[in-house]
Amino acid sequence: MNAHTDLARAIAAAPASSIPSSLFGLPGQAPHERVLLAADEQTGLKAILAVHSTARGPAFGGCRFWTYDNELAALNDALRLSQGMSLKNALADLPFGGGKAVIIKPAGNFDRPALFAAFGRAVESLQGAYITAEDVGTTTADMLGMQAQTQYVSGIPRAGAFGGDPSPKTAWGVFVSIQAGVRLHLGRESLQGVRVALQGLGAVGWHLAEFLHKAGAKLVVADVDAAKVARAQAELGAQAVGVLEILSADVDVLAPCALGASLNTQTVPTIRAKLIAGAANNQLATVADGDALQQRGICYLPDYLVNAGGIISVAREYRNEGEETAVMAEVSRIGDRVAELLDRVKSGGSTPARVADDWARSKLVKPV
Q1: pLDDT at 19
Q2: In the sheet that 239-240 helps form, which strands lie side by side, from edge to edge?
Q3: How many CB atoms within 10 Å of residue 156?
Q4: Is pLDDT of 149 > 80?
Q5: DSSP 106
Q6: Which of 100, 218, 228, 274 is catalytic?
Q7: Which pLDDT value is given to residue 13?
Q8: pLDDT score of 106 more than 60
Q9: CA gyration radius for the chain?
Q10: Which residues pair with 38 in a beta bridge?
Q11: How many CB atoms lie under 10 A from the CB of residue 53?
Q12: Taking all residues of the chain, what is their mean pLDDT, rounded to a whole number?
């Protein structure tokens, strides 16, 4: 079977939303600067490293390790995630461009350290155009193991110094965003008694749940891992619902903290929350879904605005500027940007998603 036949069959098998319309970038957007396909037969590595923009500096974004339906779905994910990192880094005023990597998880048994060493060599081959860190499916141990292969990696525990797992910082950014949204959109001065639905209790989702619980919020949770749900019930007094019911839960706030595109034509009409702010990347399937939320009176706070705490943390670490108090203060300023976004929405008459996109793109230039 030749490569053309393989590609045709992959396209036919892929869901329409997972098929990139271009190998160079997303529809209606400038093409990516560079997309590297990296494979290593010995370790089973198949990785896509997407550099969307280096206008503000080297492309910085995590590496996702995931099982995909096919290679085109992985490519589409890399293109969407890397563009989102450009917007995220720009809106956070970081001196970095946007990039992302995805590794297709091998079937069966594999040597994880060897596979990530091979990925580290792929990162090194870009000679600093892309800097990697943790994302869904990857760990601080993976990043630590890559150090022997590349200097372009962050999110690594360091004895006596700031660094390591950025998920608490991501969660804190989402938390202060929810605080700001509840105050400005729902008109409530605290989170006491506010009902929040959490879709996903992974590393970020769990930290967010703890922050919300401590602030007095009432949690409704769902996760594919029943043990995590049971823990949330026992430790945080959470109400459990099924993964198919969480988006339509009767709550004040919805926090998507799983994978992307959960806000789409099927789910938007069922949502009862009046505020959406979560850690997942690319929550809107399309920008039109953001329009539909606005028409229903639901305030959607764009994911790349509210979940920037992690990249702020690893960027500080990479530049050796890390200090816990200063980093947390910088992440807390995400709440101020939420307030500014809602002011811009009010004066401009558009939706938060469209206003945030325009605001971020205006910053996709080299910092002064």
Answers
A1: 64
A2: 239-240, 218-222, 195-199, 253-256, 275-276, 299-300
A3: 22
A4: yes
A5: P
A6: 100
A7: 39
A8: yes
A9: 20
A10: 47
A11: 23
A12: 91
- Which residue bears the tokens 């992690």? 310
What is the arithmetic mean of pLDDT over 126-131?
98
Residue 287's closest CA among 348, 356, 339? 356
Residue located via tokens 């879904």: 289
User: Residue 83: which of 274, 287, 240, 266 has the closest Cα?
Assistant: 287
CB 255, CB 277: distance < 8 Å: yes
Report strand pairing: 45-53 vs 34-40. antiparallel
Q: For the segment 213-222, what is each residue's pLDDT rounded down to a tens digit? A: 999 999 999 9
Helix (H) or strand (E) holding 176: helix 167-184
CA distance linking residue 148 with residue 193, whole number of Å: 49
100 has catalytic annotation: yes
Distances, alpha carbon 333 to alpha carbons 92, 93, 337, in Å:
9, 11, 7
Higher pLDDT, 30 or 91: 91
Nearest C-alpha neighbor of 204 from the set 306, 273, 112, 302: 306
Q: Which helix (H) or strand (E) holds 71?
A: helix 71-91
Q: Please say if the pLDDT value at position 5 is more than 80.
A: no
Token pair belonging to 60: 């910085």
Q: Using a pLDDT cut of 70, give the percent of the chain over it.
A: 92
With a cut of 60, say whether residue 105 has pLDDT above it: yes
